[in-house]
Every structure is written in C-alpha cells, then in structure tokens.
Amino acid sequence: MATEREETPREERGHFVQLLAIGLVASIIGIALGLLIDWWPSQGSAEANKIDTLYDVLIICSVPVFVLVVTVVLYCAWRYRMKPGEEEIDGPPIHGNTRLEIIWTAIPAIILVALCSYSFAILTDVEEADARALNVRVVGQQFTWTFFYRDGAGKQVSSPQLYVPRGQQVNFTVQSRDVIHDFWVPAFRMKIDAVPGINTHLRVTPDRIGQYPVICAELCGLGHAVMRQTAHVVAPAEFDRWLSNGGRTDAQNQAQQNAGAGGGGGAAPDGKAVFTGNNCGACHALADAGTTGGTGPKLDDVLADKDAAFIKQSIVNPSAEIAPGFSDGIMPPTYGETLKPAELDALVKYLDDVTGK
Ligand code: CUA
User: Fold this and answer.
1) Checking CA distances to 48, which of 58, 85, 195, 342 falls within 20 to 30 Å?
2) Does ligand 1 lie within 6 Å of residue 138's CB atom?
3) Of ligand 1's atoms, which has the minimum distance to the CA of residue 224?
4) Any ligand 1 atom below 6 A from CB of 216
C-alpha cells in the first residue's frame, strides 16, 4: 500500500477493512448465484448427486478466490490511479515481501490439493466396478447410436433406443464405426468419447425410471446436431421382458403377435412407429409423420414417384443413389442390420403409401 502520498496506519487499516467487506459481500452474492441457479438437468443415476455436490463445493471454493482477486485489482486501480500533476512522480522502490509471498503461495496450494483429493475420491467412487453390471455395447456412427445387448441365451440383441434397468450398474463399452463421437446422457452426468479402433468404457447406475436424452457431444459432421436418441430407464422386470423379446417393448411385442395370429399377410409392425422409433424424422421431413428434419432429403418430394424397391434400397444401401443436393455417407448404412426384416418391410410399405402421389 505504498504511494507517493503516505497514509497513516489508521487509514491503511480502514482501506483494508473496506476491501474485506466488499469482497465478503461479493463472495456471498457469487456463491448464492452459483448454488441457486438450476444448472443441471434432472438426476437419473446414482452418480449424478455426487457429481453435482462436487460442483457445488467447487463453486463455494472458487468464487471467493475470484472475487478477492478482482476486488483487489479494481480497488487498487481506482484508489492508486495517477492524478493530474503526478506524471513524473514514482512510488518508493519495493523489494518484495517474503511473508506475503509465502502466504499467497501456501493458501492456493492447500486449496488445490484439497480439491484435487476430493475430485479424485469422487472419480474413484463413480468408476468403481460392480461384478453384476449389465454389459451394453454402444456403437456410434454418422449419425446414429446403436445399442447391443446379450440376452439370456447369449444371443445378440440390437436396439436404436437405449433401455436400461433401474438399480443395476451398466458397463458401457463404447465404439465408433467412423469418426470420433461422444456418448453422453446428461441425466447420468457421465460421458465418454467413441473413438474409432478402440473401446472406451463408462459405468453408470441408473436410479430413476424415466426417459432421458442421449446426445452426441463431439462435432462429428453435418448430422451431429440430430445424433440424439432416448435412454429409457425401466423397472428390472420390464427390462428383462424387453431383452427376452429381442429388444421390443410389451406393446411392440403385442402388435407383432397380433399380426402373426392374423395368419400372415397383415402389416406386422406399424411402419409409422418404426419411422418414429428409429428417429428417422430427425433427419428427414415427412408430412405424414409431422417431421421437419433437414439433414437428409424431404421424403415427400424424393419418394413421390418411387416404388417400394427403390425405397428399400435407399434404406439398406443409401449410397446406391444419392438425392441431388445431398452427400454420400450422411445416412447410416446399417439400417439393413439393425431393423428387423418385418420392421423394414413395414417401414418401406408405410413410406411408399404416404409419399405416393
Ligand atoms: Cu456423433 Cu456428433
């Protein structure tokens, strides 16, 4: 606090108290704002609460540091600014202050070590493996996620939507078929990159029944923004039925059985439901389904004069013919594998019916 004008110790103490008061008030406002604002989506996993608490602690520790530094800088810039006529005057030379330097090095060091230890403890906790974990393989590709399971008999089940049971740890093995994606369910709070050529892992214990968005959090191309699906957290019994039904809900299974009982020939799954369930509308506008996606061609236009064979080819082998103005490689080439034959037929029939002129 040395300037050209000597202050009495009493004045200096007064300024110090002022600074302290300003800093204290600003810290309280900053911490209150940080804690009161609802930053996060709803919590859908056992890990979410621990991670949100960690965030709150970081806010409580970092806001006062930020406020202290900014308050001192602003106050000093104002209090000790150069006044007219002082251009030639210089302050007294200062050669450092060992005690101050030790204090301002030691305090941040202690805070940092404490926060790092706490973060590390939380990380170890949320990543702890449970031997009874359910294994789910997540495959990202431009621009969709596919989820693979093993049913009780060891047979592979694939699904365009994520289904997980409540209360059981899920061990996700995350892969990519093309570029880097990032598997993220904000309600679970955990995310990890899907990197071509390697497996990455993520463990989560969903603890609240509901539907939560699955988001790709790595810019991966034109359709990145629509690479969104849904995570369904369901009761364990419901999950077991879904898995043993080959990745179909009770309702979908019922529709399938009804169609089967009808003696064949009936439209088995509902084509419109297949369109909706596989999120086709995220990329494709289709008047009948009320979708407006613009990443892929508008189906009402490009399919107007096409037959069922063309529609089927466009779904299972989208590279065969590209609509004018669109690029190859945007539409995932895997729907031929991930859709069940009956679903594919229903989808083709639906699209043929609703786009004919
Ligand atoms: Cu995949 Cu962004």
Assistant:
1) 195
2) no
3) 2
4) yes
Q: Is a pLDDT exceeding 80 seen at residue 77? A: yes
Tell me the CA–centroid distance for residue 312 and ligand 1, in Å.
Answer: 26
Pairing of strands 228-234, 162-165: parallel
User: What is the pLDDT confidence band of residue 265, given thresholds at 50, 70 and 90?
Assistant: very low
What is the rounded distance in angstroms from the CA atom of residue 203 to the CA atom of residue 213?
17
Ligand 1 pocket, residue 181 CB under 6 Å: yes
Both tokens of 257, joined, read: 């059985």
Q: pLDDT band for 69, please (50, 70, 90 cuts).
A: confident
Taking the centre of ligand 1 as the mean of its atom positions, its distance from the CA of residue 161, in whole angstroms, is 16
Do residues 345 and 268 make contact, with C-beta atoms less than 8 angstroms apart?
Answer: yes
Dihedral of CA atoms 304, 307, 313, 314 in degrees, nearest 10, equals: 0
**Can you say whether residue 246 is alpha, beta or left, with left for phi > 0 and alpha for psi between -120 and 50 degrees?**
left
**CA-CA-CA-CA torsion for 50, 119, 187, 129, nearest 10 degrees?**
-80
Query: Which residues are within 8 A (CB) of 118 and not within 5 positions of it... i.e. 6 or more apart?
Result: 54, 57
- Is the shortest distance between the CB of 176 and ligand 1 below 6 Å? no
- DSSP secondary structure code for residue 133 in this structure: P
CB-ligand 1 contact for 140 (6 Å cutoff): yes
Whole-angstrom distance, CA of residue 197 vs CA of residue 81: 59
Give me the pLDDT at residue 103, please: 92
Each residue's pLDDT tens digit, 287-298:
888 888 777 888
**Residue 155: C-alpha distances to residues 199, 231, 243, 276 (Å):** 21, 22, 10, 26
Binding site membership of 296 for ligand 1 (Cβ less than 6 Å): no
- Go through the chain and tell me how many residues it has: 357
Torsion of CA 115, 117, 119, 121, to 10 degrees: -150
